[in-house]
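Work Package 4 report. The design task specified in the project plan requires that, given a folded chain encoded as C-alpha coordinates, an amino acid be chosen for each position. We show below one input record used in the internal validation round.
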Protein backbone atom coordinates (compact mmCIF):
# COMPACT_ATOMS: atom_id res chain seq x y z
CA UNK A 1 0.00 0.00 0.00
CA UNK A 2 1.05 3.59 -0.62
CA UNK A 3 0.69 5.55 2.58
CA UNK A 4 0.95 9.28 3.29
CA UNK A 5 1.44 10.39 6.90
CA UNK A 6 0.68 14.07 7.61
CA UNK A 7 2.88 15.60 10.31
CA UNK A 8 6.49 16.02 11.36
CA UNK A 9 6.88 15.52 15.09
CA UNK A 10 7.75 12.71 17.49
CA UNK A 11 4.22 11.33 17.22
CA UNK A 12 4.49 11.04 13.43
CA UNK A 13 7.99 9.56 13.74
CA UNK A 14 6.53 6.80 15.95
CA UNK A 15 3.56 6.32 13.60
CA UNK A 16 5.89 6.08 10.59
CA UNK A 17 8.11 3.51 12.36
CA UNK A 18 5.07 1.32 13.09
CA UNK A 19 3.73 1.63 9.54
CA UNK A 20 7.16 0.87 8.06
CA UNK A 21 7.23 -2.46 9.92
CA UNK A 22 4.07 -3.71 8.22
CA UNK A 23 4.43 -6.12 5.31
CA UNK A 24 1.41 -4.34 3.79
CA UNK A 25 3.36 -1.08 3.33
CA UNK A 26 5.02 -0.62 -0.07
CA UNK A 27 5.62 3.15 -0.14
CA UNK A 28 5.76 5.39 2.92
CA UNK A 29 5.64 9.15 2.41
CA UNK A 30 5.57 11.72 5.23
CA UNK A 31 4.85 15.45 4.90
CA UNK A 32 6.60 17.44 6.15
CA UNK A 33 8.42 14.67 8.08
CA UNK A 34 11.73 15.34 9.83
CA UNK A 35 15.39 14.24 9.68
CA UNK A 36 14.64 11.16 11.81
CA UNK A 37 11.82 9.99 9.54
CA UNK A 38 13.88 10.82 6.43
CA UNK A 39 16.24 7.92 7.23
CA UNK A 40 13.57 5.36 6.30
CA UNK A 41 10.70 7.17 4.49
CA UNK A 42 10.29 9.80 1.75
CA UNK A 43 9.65 13.30 3.14
CA UNK A 44 8.15 16.31 1.32
CA UNK A 45 8.22 19.84 2.80
CA UNK A 46 4.47 20.47 2.86
CA UNK A 47 3.01 22.13 5.97
CA UNK A 48 0.43 20.19 7.97
CA UNK A 49 -2.15 22.99 7.52
CA UNK A 50 -1.62 23.24 3.74
CA UNK A 51 -4.79 21.33 2.87
CA UNK A 52 -4.54 21.69 -0.95
CA UNK A 53 -0.82 20.79 -0.81
CA UNK A 54 -1.43 17.63 1.24
CA UNK A 55 -4.32 16.62 -1.06
CA UNK A 56 -2.14 17.07 -4.14
CA UNK A 57 0.65 14.97 -2.62
CA UNK A 58 -1.82 12.23 -1.68
CA UNK A 59 -3.08 12.18 -5.27
CA UNK A 60 0.43 12.30 -6.78
CA UNK A 61 1.64 9.30 -4.80
CA UNK A 62 -1.67 7.44 -5.37
CA UNK A 63 -2.09 7.04 -1.63
CA UNK A 64 -4.23 4.10 -0.56
CA UNK A 65 -4.82 6.04 2.63
CA UNK A 66 -3.61 9.13 4.46
CA UNK A 67 -2.84 8.97 8.20
CA UNK A 68 -3.52 12.45 9.56
CA UNK A 69 -1.36 12.91 12.68
CA UNK A 70 -2.02 16.38 14.19
CA UNK A 71 -5.33 18.05 15.16
CA UNK A 72 -5.06 21.17 12.98
CA UNK A 73 -5.50 19.48 9.55
CA UNK A 74 -8.29 17.34 11.05
CA UNK A 75 -10.15 20.35 12.41
CA UNK A 76 -9.59 22.14 9.06
CA UNK A 77 -11.30 19.24 7.27
CA UNK A 78 -8.41 17.49 5.47
CA UNK A 79 -10.25 14.17 5.65
CA UNK A 80 -13.35 15.65 3.99
CA UNK A 81 -11.24 17.12 1.16
CA UNK A 82 -9.43 13.83 0.60
CA UNK A 83 -12.72 11.93 0.48
CA UNK A 84 -13.94 14.31 -2.24
CA UNK A 85 -10.96 13.13 -4.29
CA UNK A 86 -11.77 9.49 -3.58
CA UNK A 87 -8.80 9.10 -1.19
CA UNK A 88 -9.32 7.31 2.13
CA UNK A 89 -8.08 8.89 5.33
CA UNK A 90 -7.49 7.66 8.86
CA UNK A 91 -8.85 10.32 11.22
CA UNK A 92 -12.19 12.00 11.92
CA UNK A 93 -14.09 14.35 9.58
CA UNK A 94 -14.19 18.10 10.24
CA UNK A 95 -17.55 17.76 12.02
CA UNK A 96 -16.38 14.83 14.18
CA UNK A 97 -13.06 16.57 14.99
CA UNK A 98 -15.10 19.26 16.81
CA UNK A 99 -14.78 16.99 19.84
CA UNK A 100 -11.29 18.50 20.10
CA UNK A 101 -11.74 21.67 18.01
CA UNK A 102 -14.41 23.12 20.29
CA UNK A 103 -14.31 22.43 24.03
CA UNK A 104 -17.84 23.83 24.27
CA UNK A 105 -19.12 21.41 21.60
CA UNK A 106 -17.44 18.59 23.49
CA UNK A 107 -18.90 19.55 26.92
CA UNK A 108 -22.42 20.01 25.52
CA UNK A 109 -22.13 16.71 23.64
CA UNK A 110 -21.12 14.86 26.84
CA UNK A 111 -24.03 16.45 28.67
CA UNK A 112 -26.50 15.31 25.99
CA UNK A 113 -25.19 11.75 26.26
CA UNK A 114 -24.70 11.53 30.04
CA UNK A 115 -20.95 11.07 29.74
CA UNK A 116 -19.32 11.80 33.15
CA UNK A 117 -17.51 15.15 33.22
CA UNK A 118 -16.98 18.21 35.46
CA UNK A 119 -19.79 20.80 35.72
CA UNK A 120 -19.26 23.72 33.36
CA UNK A 121 -20.61 27.13 32.38
CA UNK A 122 -20.32 28.54 28.88
CA UNK A 123 -19.56 32.30 28.80
CA UNK A 124 -19.08 34.91 26.10
CA UNK A 125 -18.97 37.98 28.39
CA UNK A 126 -16.83 38.77 31.41
CA UNK A 127 -19.75 39.53 33.76
CA UNK A 128 -21.24 36.02 33.38
CA UNK A 129 -17.74 34.56 33.76
CA UNK A 130 -17.06 36.55 36.95
CA UNK A 131 -20.34 35.40 38.52
CA UNK A 132 -19.46 31.77 37.86
CA UNK A 133 -15.90 32.21 39.16
CA UNK A 134 -17.19 33.73 42.41
CA UNK A 135 -19.76 30.93 42.72
CA UNK A 136 -16.89 28.40 42.55
CA UNK A 137 -14.78 30.44 44.96
CA UNK A 138 -12.05 30.72 42.31
CA UNK A 139 -11.32 26.98 42.53
CA UNK A 140 -12.02 26.39 38.85
CA UNK A 141 -10.55 25.90 35.39
CA UNK A 142 -10.82 28.59 32.71
CA UNK A 143 -10.70 27.26 29.14
CA UNK A 144 -10.67 28.88 25.73
CA UNK A 145 -13.18 27.17 23.43
CA UNK A 146 -10.95 26.70 20.38
CA UNK A 147 -7.48 25.32 19.67
CA UNK A 148 -4.76 27.27 21.48
CA UNK A 149 -1.70 25.01 21.10
CA UNK A 150 -2.27 23.49 24.55
CA UNK A 151 -2.10 26.93 26.24
CA UNK A 152 -5.80 27.73 26.49
CA UNK A 153 -6.41 26.03 29.85
CA UNK A 154 -5.75 27.82 33.16
CA UNK A 155 -6.17 25.83 36.37
CA UNK A 156 -7.01 28.36 39.11
CA UNK A 157 -6.92 28.46 42.94
CA UNK A 158 -8.27 31.95 43.52
CA UNK A 159 -10.99 34.29 42.25
CA UNK A 160 -8.37 36.82 41.21
CA UNK A 161 -6.38 34.34 39.16
CA UNK A 162 -9.48 33.08 37.37
CA UNK A 163 -10.78 36.58 36.61
CA UNK A 164 -7.41 37.52 35.11
CA UNK A 165 -7.44 34.38 32.93
CA UNK A 166 -11.03 34.98 31.76
CA UNK A 167 -10.35 38.67 31.08
CA UNK A 168 -7.26 37.85 29.02
CA UNK A 169 -9.32 35.52 26.85
CA UNK A 170 -12.62 37.41 26.55
CA UNK A 171 -11.45 41.03 26.63
CA UNK A 172 -7.77 41.08 25.70
CA UNK A 173 -7.94 38.72 22.73
CA UNK A 174 -5.21 36.45 24.14
CA UNK A 175 -6.11 33.50 21.89
CA UNK A 176 -7.96 35.46 19.19
CA UNK A 177 -11.17 33.76 18.01
CA UNK A 178 -10.34 30.62 20.03
CA UNK A 179 -10.86 32.60 23.26
CA UNK A 180 -13.96 34.61 22.33
CA UNK A 181 -16.06 31.95 24.06
CA UNK A 182 -14.81 30.27 27.21
CA UNK A 183 -15.73 27.64 29.75
CA UNK A 184 -15.56 28.04 33.50
CA UNK A 185 -15.34 24.50 34.84
CA UNK A 186 -15.64 22.94 38.23
CA UNK A 187 -12.11 21.85 39.22
CA UNK A 188 -12.03 18.13 39.91
CA UNK A 189 -9.29 16.07 41.56
CA UNK A 190 -7.72 12.69 40.94
CA UNK A 191 -5.08 10.90 38.88
CA UNK A 192 -5.06 11.56 35.14
CA UNK A 193 -4.68 9.08 32.31
CA UNK A 194 -4.81 9.18 28.52
CA UNK A 195 -6.95 6.49 26.93
CA UNK A 196 -6.76 5.78 23.19
CA UNK A 197 -9.46 4.00 21.23
CA UNK A 198 -9.73 3.36 17.51
CA UNK A 199 -13.19 3.58 15.97
CA UNK A 200 -14.76 2.92 12.57
CA UNK A 201 -17.84 4.98 13.42
CA UNK A 202 -19.75 1.99 14.79
CA UNK A 203 -17.31 -0.01 16.88
CA UNK A 204 -14.38 0.95 19.06
CA UNK A 205 -11.37 -0.97 20.39
CA UNK A 206 -8.78 0.18 22.95
CA UNK A 207 -5.40 0.76 21.31
CA UNK A 208 -3.48 1.77 24.44
CA UNK A 209 -3.32 3.80 27.61
CA UNK A 210 -0.64 6.14 28.92
CA UNK A 211 0.18 8.64 31.58
CA UNK A 212 1.48 11.96 30.31
CA UNK A 213 3.66 14.30 32.40
CA UNK A 214 2.45 17.76 31.40
CA UNK A 215 4.32 20.11 33.72
CA UNK A 216 7.74 21.34 32.63
CA UNK A 217 9.73 20.41 35.75
CA UNK A 218 10.18 17.55 38.21
CA UNK A 219 7.49 16.89 40.85
CA UNK A 220 4.86 18.36 38.51
CA UNK A 221 6.15 21.87 39.01
CA UNK A 222 6.35 24.69 36.46
CA UNK A 223 4.12 25.60 33.53
CA UNK A 224 2.00 23.21 31.47
CA UNK A 225 3.64 21.88 28.31
CA UNK A 226 2.56 19.61 25.46
CA UNK A 227 4.01 16.76 27.54
CA UNK A 228 7.51 16.12 28.89
CA UNK A 229 7.32 12.34 28.97
CA UNK A 230 4.92 9.45 29.18
CA UNK A 231 4.59 5.91 30.37
CA UNK A 232 2.43 3.06 29.08
CA UNK A 233 0.29 1.37 30.22
CA UNK A 234 -1.11 4.10 32.50
CA UNK A 235 -0.22 3.03 36.07
CA UNK A 236 -3.53 4.45 37.38
CA UNK A 237 -5.62 2.10 35.23
CA UNK A 238 -6.40 -1.57 35.65
CA UNK A 239 -8.69 -3.83 33.64
CA UNK A 240 -11.76 -2.80 35.64
CA UNK A 241 -11.11 0.91 35.16
CA UNK A 242 -10.36 0.36 31.46
CA UNK A 243 -13.71 -1.39 31.15
CA UNK A 244 -15.49 1.38 33.02
CA UNK A 245 -13.91 4.05 30.80
CA UNK A 246 -14.73 2.04 27.70
CA UNK A 247 -18.37 1.48 28.70
CA UNK A 248 -19.14 4.89 30.25
CA UNK A 249 -17.03 7.21 28.10
CA UNK A 250 -15.77 5.69 24.82
CA UNK A 251 -18.87 3.71 23.77
CA UNK A 252 -21.43 6.47 24.48
CA UNK A 253 -19.20 8.93 22.59
CA UNK A 254 -19.02 6.72 19.49
CA UNK A 255 -22.77 5.98 19.70
CA UNK A 256 -23.63 9.64 20.30
CA UNK A 257 -21.55 10.90 17.37
CA UNK A 258 -23.21 8.35 15.10
CA UNK A 259 -26.66 9.28 16.37
CA UNK A 260 -25.98 12.96 15.74
CA UNK A 261 -24.90 12.27 12.16
CA UNK A 262 -21.13 12.68 12.55
CA UNK A 263 -19.79 9.14 12.90
CA UNK A 264 -16.39 9.24 14.58
CA UNK A 265 -13.66 7.42 12.63
CA UNK A 266 -10.02 7.30 13.69
CA UNK A 267 -8.30 7.68 17.03
CA UNK A 268 -10.38 8.98 19.93
CA UNK A 269 -8.17 10.19 22.76
CA UNK A 270 -9.97 10.59 26.07
CA UNK A 271 -8.06 12.53 28.72
CA UNK A 272 -9.68 11.28 31.92
CA UNK A 273 -9.38 11.99 35.61
CA UNK A 274 -10.03 9.14 38.04
CA UNK A 275 -12.06 10.88 40.73
CA UNK A 276 -13.66 9.49 43.88
CA UNK A 277 -16.85 9.23 41.84
CA UNK A 278 -15.18 7.34 39.00
CA UNK A 279 -13.51 8.41 35.72
CA UNK A 280 -14.55 11.75 34.22
CA UNK A 281 -13.65 13.35 30.88
CA UNK A 282 -11.13 16.19 31.16
CA UNK A 283 -10.92 16.57 27.39
CA UNK A 284 -11.27 14.74 24.12
CA UNK A 285 -8.66 14.85 21.39
CA UNK A 286 -9.26 13.68 17.85
CA UNK A 287 -5.83 12.09 17.32
CA UNK A 288 -3.00 10.26 19.03
CA UNK A 289 -1.19 12.15 21.82
CA UNK A 290 2.35 13.46 21.69
CA UNK A 291 4.44 12.10 23.48
CA UNK A 292 1.97 9.29 24.37
CA UNK A 293 2.22 7.76 20.87
CA UNK A 294 5.93 7.21 21.47
CA UNK A 295 5.00 4.73 24.23
CA UNK A 296 1.65 3.40 22.96
CA UNK A 297 2.77 2.25 19.50
CA UNK A 298 5.99 0.46 20.55
CA UNK A 299 3.76 -1.78 22.75
CA UNK A 300 1.39 -2.64 19.91
CA UNK A 301 1.58 -6.30 18.91
CA UNK A 302 -0.98 -6.12 16.11
CA UNK A 303 -0.17 -4.79 12.63
CA UNK A 304 -1.06 -1.06 12.55
CA UNK A 305 -1.81 -1.05 8.81
CA UNK A 306 -4.34 -3.87 9.22
CA UNK A 307 -6.03 -1.95 12.07
CA UNK A 308 -6.30 1.10 9.77
CA UNK A 309 -7.58 -0.99 6.85
CA UNK A 310 -10.32 -2.44 9.02
CA UNK A 311 -11.20 1.04 10.30
CA UNK A 312 -11.51 2.43 6.79
CA UNK A 313 -13.63 -0.54 5.69
CA UNK A 314 -15.81 0.00 8.81
CA UNK A 315 -15.01 -3.51 9.82
CA UNK A 316 -13.47 -3.14 13.28
CA UNK A 317 -16.16 -5.22 14.99
CA UNK A 318 -14.09 -8.40 15.17
CA UNK A 319 -10.71 -6.70 15.69
CA UNK A 320 -8.58 -7.86 18.59
CA UNK A 321 -5.65 -5.60 19.40
CA UNK A 322 -2.75 -7.18 21.25
CA UNK A 323 0.07 -5.60 23.22
CA UNK A 324 3.47 -6.80 24.32
CA UNK A 325 3.53 -7.34 28.10
CA UNK A 326 6.46 -4.98 28.66
CA UNK A 327 6.17 -1.38 29.82
CA UNK A 328 7.31 1.59 27.77
CA UNK A 329 8.56 5.00 28.82
CA UNK A 330 9.50 8.09 26.85
CA UNK A 331 11.55 11.03 28.12
CA UNK A 332 11.35 14.29 26.18
CA UNK A 333 14.48 16.38 25.74
CA UNK A 334 13.35 19.99 25.31
CA UNK A 335 15.04 23.27 24.38
CA UNK A 336 16.04 25.36 27.41
CA UNK A 337 13.28 27.94 27.95
CA UNK A 338 10.40 25.75 26.67
CA UNK A 339 7.40 26.22 26.99
CA UNK A 340 8.39 29.91 27.03
CA UNK A 341 10.93 31.47 24.65
CA UNK A 342 13.68 29.21 23.32
CA UNK A 343 16.31 29.26 20.59
CA UNK A 344 16.00 27.21 17.41
CA UNK A 345 18.82 26.00 15.16
CA UNK A 346 20.99 24.83 18.08
CA UNK A 347 23.43 22.04 17.15
CA UNK A 348 22.48 18.56 18.42
CA UNK A 349 24.87 15.71 19.26
CA UNK A 350 25.15 12.82 16.79
CA UNK A 351 22.45 10.21 17.35
CA UNK A 352 24.01 7.55 15.12
CA UNK A 353 25.21 5.46 18.10
CA UNK A 354 21.63 4.49 18.89
CA UNK A 355 20.67 3.21 15.43
CA UNK A 356 21.28 -0.43 16.28
CA UNK A 357 19.96 -0.46 19.83
CA UNK A 358 17.07 -2.79 20.48
CA UNK A 359 14.21 -1.70 22.68
CA UNK A 360 15.37 1.92 22.41
CA UNK A 361 13.91 4.47 19.98
CA UNK A 362 15.12 8.04 19.63
CA UNK A 363 12.18 9.87 18.07
CA UNK A 364 12.65 13.33 16.52
CA UNK A 365 10.10 15.80 17.88
CA UNK A 366 11.54 19.11 16.72
CA UNK A 367 14.68 18.77 14.62
CA UNK A 368 15.90 19.93 11.21
CA UNK A 369 19.13 20.11 9.22
CA UNK A 370 21.14 23.31 8.83
CA UNK A 371 22.80 24.33 5.56
CA UNK A 372 25.78 22.11 6.33
CA UNK A 373 23.49 19.11 6.91
CA UNK A 374 24.08 19.19 10.67
CA UNK A 375 21.22 18.11 12.90
CA UNK A 376 19.83 21.11 14.80
CA UNK A 377 16.88 21.81 17.11
CA UNK A 378 13.71 23.15 15.50
CA UNK A 379 11.13 23.23 18.29
CA UNK A 380 10.41 23.30 22.00
CA UNK A 381 10.35 19.56 22.32
CA UNK A 382 13.34 18.25 20.38
CA UNK A 383 13.77 14.49 20.96
CA UNK A 384 11.83 11.81 22.76
CA UNK A 385 13.75 8.81 23.98
CA UNK A 386 11.63 5.69 24.36
CA UNK A 387 12.62 2.46 26.00
CA UNK A 388 10.81 -0.84 26.51
CA UNK A 389 11.52 -2.95 29.57
CA UNK A 390 10.26 -5.76 31.73
CA UNK A 391 9.10 -3.27 34.36
CA UNK A 392 8.96 0.47 34.86
CA UNK A 393 12.22 0.53 36.80
CA UNK A 394 14.04 -1.25 33.98
CA UNK A 395 12.55 1.09 31.33
CA UNK A 396 13.46 4.17 33.31
CA UNK A 397 17.05 3.07 33.69
CA UNK A 398 17.47 2.30 29.99
CA UNK A 399 15.80 5.50 28.78
CA UNK A 400 17.71 7.76 31.17
CA UNK A 401 21.03 6.07 30.26
CA UNK A 402 20.45 7.09 26.64
CA UNK A 403 19.28 10.59 27.57
CA UNK A 404 22.46 11.06 29.63
CA UNK A 405 24.62 9.70 26.82
CA UNK A 406 23.03 12.13 24.35
CA UNK A 407 24.04 14.81 26.85
CA UNK A 408 22.66 17.84 25.00
CA UNK A 409 23.91 20.75 27.06
CA UNK A 410 21.45 23.30 25.62
CA UNK A 411 18.46 21.15 26.49
CA UNK A 412 16.68 19.96 29.62
CA UNK A 413 14.51 17.02 30.62
CA UNK A 414 12.50 15.82 33.60
CA UNK A 415 14.24 13.28 35.76
CA UNK A 416 11.09 11.79 37.27
CA UNK A 417 9.18 10.39 34.29
CA UNK A 418 7.59 7.12 35.35
CA UNK A 419 8.80 7.47 38.93
CA UNK A 420 6.23 5.60 40.95
P1 LIG B 1 -6.35 20.10 28.76
O1 LIG B 1 -5.52 20.98 27.86
O2 LIG B 1 -7.85 20.27 28.58
O3 LIG B 1 -5.88 18.68 28.78
O4 LIG B 1 -6.07 20.61 30.23
C1 LIG B 1 -4.75 20.68 30.72
C2 LIG B 1 -4.72 20.17 32.13
O5 LIG B 1 -5.57 20.98 32.94
C3 LIG B 1 -5.28 18.76 32.30
O6 LIG B 1 -4.32 17.80 32.03
C4 LIG B 1 -5.68 18.79 33.76
O7 LIG B 1 -4.56 18.57 34.58
C5 LIG B 1 -6.13 20.21 33.97
N1 LIG B 1 -7.61 20.30 33.90
C6 LIG B 1 -8.38 20.58 32.82
N2 LIG B 1 -9.68 20.60 33.16
C7 LIG B 1 -9.76 20.35 34.48
C8 LIG B 1 -10.84 20.27 35.44
N3 LIG B 1 -12.10 20.49 35.09
N4 LIG B 1 -10.51 19.98 36.71
C9 LIG B 1 -9.23 19.80 37.11
N5 LIG B 1 -8.18 19.89 36.26
C10 LIG B 1 -8.43 20.15 34.97
N1 LIG C 1 0.28 15.05 25.32
C1 LIG C 1 -0.96 15.70 25.21
C2 LIG C 1 -1.52 15.81 23.88
O1 LIG C 1 -1.05 15.23 22.93
O2 LIG C 1 -2.53 16.51 23.72
Amino acid sequence: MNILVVGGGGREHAIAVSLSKSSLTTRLVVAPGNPGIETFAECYPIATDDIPGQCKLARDIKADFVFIGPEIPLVLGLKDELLKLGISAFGPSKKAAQLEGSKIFSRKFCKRHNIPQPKFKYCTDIETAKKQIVLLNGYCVVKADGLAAGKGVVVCDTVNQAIIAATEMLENNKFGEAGKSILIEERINGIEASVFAVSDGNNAVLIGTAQDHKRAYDNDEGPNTGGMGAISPAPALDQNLNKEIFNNIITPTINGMKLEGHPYEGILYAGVMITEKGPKVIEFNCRFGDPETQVVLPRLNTDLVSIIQKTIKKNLGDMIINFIPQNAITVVIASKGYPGKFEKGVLLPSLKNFDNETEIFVFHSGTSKDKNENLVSNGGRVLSVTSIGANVQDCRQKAYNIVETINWKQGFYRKDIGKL
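The mean pLDDT is 95. Validation will be extended to a larger panel in the next phase.
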